[in-house]
Write a structure and sequence with these properties.
This protein has 93 residues and is an alpha+beta fold. The protein contains three helices and six strands.
Length: 93
């Protein structure tokens, strides 16, 4: 993500697991995310860092939770290990 001050920040989408670039559908998942938010002003909710110093956050465009949209569209899975709801993933199915 490119911030207003032209600083590049790597974001880890919180609460979802998307395929890596080299895995099946990895490029497709990335393209779907890019198509939704490229060139748009988004808000990142979250301020924790993961072990790779990426910002853990939920991406919001207007009132849309982009993380949830990735799951709904079948481009990612919802994390289940922290008691998160499966409603969004079930909707995708």
């Amino acid at each position: 993500m490119l911030q207003a001050n032209n600083e590049l920040t790597r974001i880890r989408l919180n609460g979802i697991d998307a395929p890596e670039k080299a895995q099946p559908f990895g490029q497709r998942s990335r393209q779907a995310l890019t198509a939704m938010i490229a060139g748009k002003a988004v808000h990142i909710a979250g301020n924790n860092l993961d072990r790779y110093d990426r910002l853990l956050g939920t991406v919001w465009y207007d009132l849309t939770d982009i993380n949830a949209v990735q799951v709904i569209n079948g481009m990612a899975w919802a994390y289940r290990y922290r008691g998160s709801s499966q409603k969004t993933e079930n909707k995708a199915r």
